[in-house]
Amino acid sequence: MRPFAALDAKKLRADLDPTIIGCEIIALNETTSTNDEILKRANGGAPEGFVVFADHQTAGRGQRDNSWESAHGLGLWFSFLLRPKIDIGDSPRLLRWSTRAISDTISKEFSLPARVKLPNDVTVAGKKIAGVLVEMRAQKNAPHIAIVGIGLNVNHQVQDFSEPLRDRATSLAIALNREIDRHQLAVTLLKNLDQSYARDFR
After folding, report:
1. Cβ-based neighbours of 78, under 8 Å, separated by 6 or more
2. 82: nearest Cα among 144, 139, 30
3. What angle do CA 75, 33, 137 make, to 5 degrees?
4. DSSP letter at 57?
5. Which of 44, 52, 125, 192 has an alpha carbon 20 to 30 Å from 108's alpha carbon atom?
6. Rounded CA gap, 103 and 107, in Å?
7. Burial classification of residue 3, based on how many CB atoms lie within 10 Å of its CB (0-12 exposed, 13-18 middle, 19 or more buried)
8. Which residues contact 182 (CB under 8 A, 6 or more apart)?
9. Mind listing the pLDDT tens digit for each residue in 165-200?
10. Largest Cα span, the chain
11. Is the pTM of the predicted complex or chain greater than 0.90?
12. Which of 3, 1, 46 has its CA nearest to residue 182?
């Protein structure tokens, strides 16, 4: 395993303006799935915008119960809790919003032609660089909760992907031929998600 700088929740929070998404942050070394971590905390009264990062997921998942590879310290693997004022059947709106925010962030920050591949992927040069999983839970007499899970391949090299993925997946480091500061990228992406969420769903 290559050395990497672990994400620091206090530093992430300190670098964000007052926000909804990112109002509280924890950063774990390892968990099964950041979506599972958010669900546990949602049941305990966590606020809207609560974020969980993990440097590694042992059971990360994508759409249709597909697994998601989460190489240790090489990507951004995180989930956050929302209470959007939408019907539970409108969860595709959250998918479209979050994939667009990721795509726009990559395109603007790195001058890469990132594109949304419906329903839940972001691609660069035709290869998958990010994916989103939205899980909604109905609540009695309260706004439904939505858990948005994001996986973004950041500092992978080709050999860091499993053999079946090497022809279909890419990372920012591969596309740019340099390593990326995960902390700064996380801050920028959270800001963009927060601003667009406030605009589109509040």
Report:
1. 34, 51, 52, 53, 54, 149, 150, 186
2. 144
3. 120
4. B
5. 52
6. 6
7. exposed
8. 4, 5, 7, 75, 76, 154, 155
9. 999 999 999 999 999 999 999 999 999 999 999 999
10. 51
11. yes
12. 3
